[in-house]
Specification:
It contains 10 helices and 27 strands. It is an alpha+beta fold and about 575 residues long.
């Protein structure tokens, strides 16, 4: 609206101009809206089509490999004993195995101490070895408790698979060390070295351990190495060794140590004196096995500060192996194999064997075997072909929906798909159908029909499962030749599809053109708006000029009428 209009003539100029402007705008605006809707629909349809073609292209690329049609299944006749997987192309065959022993890691119990997790040790360092690897643990006043030692071992041994825990039994509390490193020769060993800086209630040397050796801490006594004992016999039993050490009245702790070392030298028994907070004690070492006990008989009527029975060790307090590190032992087709691990990938080429449990002695004696069978994986090949058929049918279904013509009733225009008559769709499907019916070069399989895959009336593919299974049984090796590789069906189909995809493909070029049309529509709308504004301004100018003229004429008429009315003899007639 331009100011107040129609004053002079009384005509509704605004309504007239509005009607004329709308009649001028409507045809072009309707045309642009229709073009925009059609173009936007085509862009959306091309996006849907490109997505489906891209999916088909991915399937074709994955199937254009000989490996996609030459897979094997690897199975075990008893998964509770062993499992197997293929790590590469493995010839079809069968292997018979017997599993006599699993590989295992070392687990040891160290000497027990009293005082629970708060029990303390002299400061120093521990060296924990597992096979050829080792790590050091520093023990000082901040971590010289049993709990502190456990945590220090867990921290230092995390990267080597060694862990420690505390177990409390009738003899006291002790460290249990476990190693995840399997195989014979990978037993846990611990060496201790005291530095004399911090004193604890227990000697750090009590935590030493070596496979086949044992250590026992005897109870603490007051008076140090000079403490005396009543007469009697100290009995040390370790493995097959029974050492009886005669103790005289008033023998000191140091004298008893010397007698043990003298009498036990030839039998692998030795003793040292450790002084800790609370007193001194004998520490007995034996190389005769991991069972070590010390008992005593005493003549309490003899002289001496202490009864000899105070030196008896607590029952089952010595260090010992719980599990010895062992190697896996098994046979493959009668050939003996020994491996450090239960996961073996270097015995049967291309197959990884995972040993789960050992067979019973009865099964071994009865020569019962566990079979690993390598067979052609027809199920995977069948699945690959089904994937191809499904994605191809999805493309056919999508193109049908995008190019369909649906009648909606007599006298009404049919509803058409957004890509009706699109030459790119026609060329794509035509190229693919040409390759589907082309005979291959392989003498074994020359067409999809030989694999039970045929084209239906609606253009989609279907699979005859029975015929496909028969082909896979009789011509398994030829399927890959027909479908993959240079000149194979999947490669030829991929060559048809490839030009439609990518940043410079047919679909992108089509979309770029449609986007140009959308931009053109926007520009045309801007031009239409400017033109309509000019038309509206022109119409207002014309009608306002007319209104002004009519107003002036009306004023002139009224002026003349008034002048005539004032003339002599003019009689004004009443209405």
């Amino acid at each position: 609206m331009v100011g107040i209009t129609g004053v002079g003539s009384g005509i509704d100029i605004d309504s007239i101009v509005k009607a004329l402007v709308n009649s001028e705008r409507a045809p072009k605006e309707l045309q642009l809206n229709r073009l925009e809707k059609t173009t936007t629909s085509r862009i959306s349809a091309l996006g849907s089509l490109r997505s489906v073609v891209g999916e088909l292209s991915s399937v074709l690329q994955s199937l254009n490999k000989a490996s996609a049609f030459q897979k094997q299944t690897v199975s075990s006749s008893s998964s509770s004993v062993l499992t197997a997987t293929a790590s590469g192309d493995v010839p079809v065959g069968k292997f018979s195995l017997q599993v006599q022993q699993l590989a295992s890691g070392s687990k040891v119990a160290l000497s027990s101490v009293t005082g629970g997790s708060a029990a303390t040790f002299n400061s120093g360092s521990l060296t924990v070895s597992v096979g050829t690897s080792s790590f050091d643990v520093d023990i000082n006043d901040s971590n010289n408790s049993l709990l502190g030692v456990r945590d220090a071992i867990n921290t230092a041994g995390a990267s080597t698979g060694v862990s420690a825990s505390i177990v409390t039994d009738a003899s006291g509390s002790r460290l249990i060390l476990s190693s995840s490193k399997t195989g014979e020769g990978n037993d846990i060993q611990i060496a201790a070295s005291q530095d004399g800086v911090t004193q604890g209630a227990n000697a750090l040397n009590a935590l030493t351990f070596s496979a086949g050796n044992s250590t026992a801490q005897l109870p603490l006594v007051a008076g140090g190495a000079a403490a005396t004992f009543k007469a009697g016999t100290l009995n040390i039993d370790s493995g097959a060794v029974n050492l009886a050490v005669a103790i005289g009245a008033d023998d000191s702790l140091d004298t008893i140590r010397q007698k043990i070392n003298t009498d036990g030298a030839a039998q692998g028994i030795s003793a040292t004196i450790e002084t800790v907070d609370g007193g001194s004690r004998l520490v007995i070492q034996s190389s005769n096995g991991e069972d070590l006990s010390v008992t005593a008989t005493t003549d309490d009527l003899s002289t001496g500060d202490n009864s000899l029975t105070t030196l008896a060790s607590t029952v089952d307090s010595d260090s010992k192996s719980i599990d010895t590190a062992k190697s896996a032992m098994f046979t493959v087709d009668g050939l003996s194999v020994v491996k450090l691990s239960n996961t073996v990938d270097d015995v049967i080429e291309g197959i990884t064997i995972n040993l789960v449990s050992a067979q019973s002695a009865d099964d071994i004696a009865a020569n019962k075997t566990i079979d690993i069978t390598v067979a052609q994986d027809k199920g995977t090949v069948r699945g690959n072909l089904q994937k191809f058929v499904d994605t191809y049918n999805k493309l056919v279904q999508t193109t049908n929906e995008l190019t369909t013509v649906v009648p909606v009733g007599e006298g009404k225009a049919p509803v058409t798909g957004p890509l009706l008559g699109d030459t790119s769709i026609r060329n794509l499907l035509s190229g693919m159908r040409k390759e589907l019916v082309q005979l291959g070069d392989s003498l074994g399989v020359q067409s999809l029909a030989e694999l039970g895959i045929t084209t239906q009336k609606d253009g989609k593919l279907s699979i005859d499962s029975a015929k496909l299974d028969s082909a896979l049984v009789g011509k398994y090796d030829k399927v890959s030749e027909f479908l993959s590789g240079e000149g194979g069906l999947m490669g030829r189909l991929e060559a048809v599809v490839k030009p439609y995809l990518g940043t410079d493909g047919v679909f992108q070029q089509r979309e770029n053109g449609l986007q140009t049309t959308i931009s053109s529509i926007d520009k045309q709308r801007e031009a239409l708006t400017l033109r309509i504004e000019k038309v509206q301004a022109r119409l207002y100018a014309q009608y306002n000029a007319m209104d002004s003229l009519v107003g002036r004429l009306k004023q002139t008429s009224e002026s003349l009428a008034n002048q005539l009315a004032s003339l002599p003899g003019f009689v004004k007639k009443d209405n």
